[in-house]
Amino acid sequence: MITVLDCNNFWSPSGGGVRRYHLERMAYYREQSEFRIVFLMQDSRTFTEEVTASLVIEHVKAFKFPGEWDYRFIWNPSVLRKYYLKHTPDIVEIGSPYWLPIAARIATRGLTHKPLLVGFWHADFPVTYVNRGLSHVHPLLGRVGESLAWLYARWAYRGYASIQVSSCEVIARMLRHNLLRLRWIPLGVDVHQFHPGCRDESLVRELKAGNPNRLTIFFPHRLTEEKGVPTLLAAYPELCRRLGVEPAIVFASIGPCKQAILDACQKYPHIRYIGFVNGASEMARWYASTEMGLALSAWETFGLSILESMSCGQFLVGANSGAAKEHVETSGCGRVIPPGDASALVEAVVSLVQSGKLSELSVKARIFAETFTWKACFDRQVVYYHSILQQRDSQ
Fold first, then answer.
1. Closest CA to 188 of 325, 301, 22, 304
2. How many CB atoms lie within 10 A of CB 144?
């Protein structure tokens, strides 16, 4: 049996795409006779949960970040080494880039049974966080910071067998910065769970509030600037004016922009905040009962919520970069705009609503989403794991 130890500081019990990836991954591998997955799950205390012979969850007490977050951070190589010795993994998969790739490598020193180290590029951090964050101070500082971040990434993943990446556009960017040995592993969506048939007519009527022409929008992304919350709130008054009917927007997540959304709820009767939605069936109900999705982050490495939205038949406005651009343009289900451009968002939404083709766009979205499944994702990953182990054994 091949043992894979999985650790990711991007895991959060109230997270979005990364959480969904790990939940679906555990569901797939838990009954696999060929693989044993050991997931190090950050928690408030340490204990072992043996789910099946093929799935073990090691709950690891870890530091919790303050504020409106549910993230905990494993940083000590000795903690990782403890689980290396306990489970003797063949492969260690690291899903977050900050220090953890280095800690995972340090933890292998002196081991008789050294695992292969692999990464999963869940965040395009040199562009997403470093450049974007520092550019608020000065554009030059952002560019310099991004260059240093790529340098760090090449060093951090030195000695790794390869890195899994879910976006072709991101792969191209990584190659331009000399991050090599990449493997395309597109993620998936449960097309049976996320389906237009999950539409709740009573919820539709509630959101339409007596006007069948009212546009309904569902926003389940982290409440951050990166995800486009300020852009959407800035565009809303003009959307109301141009559409002639106030759109209904439902925000469903947590994050530092929560107060701005609560303030908007007080000001506008058709903006509401429902908090974190726990459960795929409830998420699917909201997706399928609203018409439009937004993918305003330019830094999505795959965009699971984008695919869930499309699988439920939503048409989209997305950023003109990253996975959002890939999904929207390839499917033909919407428009792409420059990130952070409230005026462009207004124009895109108005043009889509006035196109008279919303039903056609909805069908295109669903057809595209059906080409991605979690089974296909992890079947591809199984082949990948076998290939890197065979490559090591042949050396």
1. 304
2. 14
| Residue 10: strand, helix, or coil | coil
pLDDT for 68 beyond 70: no
Contact assessment for residue 158 and residue 180, using Cβ atoms and an 8 Å cutoff: no
The C-alpha atoms of residue 12 and residue 150 are separated, in whole angstroms, by 25
Question: Would the CATH topology of 2-188+373-394 be identical to that of 196-369?
Answer: yes
Dihedral sign of CA atoms 305, 306, 311, 316 in order = positive
Task: Spell out the domain ranges in the chain.
Answer: 2-188+373-394, 196-369
Q: Where are the beta strands (DSSP E) in 177-223?
A: 182-184, 216-219
As beta bridge partners, residue 250 has: 218, 272
Q: Are 182 and 140 in contact (CB under 8 A)?
A: no
* Residues whose CB falls within 8 Å of the CB of residue 26, separated by 6 or more in sequence, listed in order: 37, 39, 51, 55, 57
State which fold the 196-369 domain adopts. Answer: Rossmann fold (3.40.50)
CA 88 to mean position of chain CA atoms: 29
Q: Between 150 and 253, whose confidence is greater? A: 150
For the residues 75-100, what does the mean pLDDT come to? 94
User: Residues in the chain, how many?
Assistant: 395
Q: Which fold has domain 2-188+373-394?
A: Rossmann fold (3.40.50)
Could you tell me if 121 and 32 are in contact, meaning their C-beta atoms sit under 8 angstroms apart?
no
Question: How far apart, in whole angstroms, are the C-alpha atoms of residue 335 and residue 348?
Answer: 6
Q: Are 83 and 5 in contact (CB under 8 A)?
A: yes
- The 3-state DSSP class for residue 3 equals strand
Residue 4's alpha-carbon distances to 90, 227, 277, in angstroms, are: 6, 32, 30
- Band of residue 302 on the pLDDT scale cut at 50, 70, 90: confident
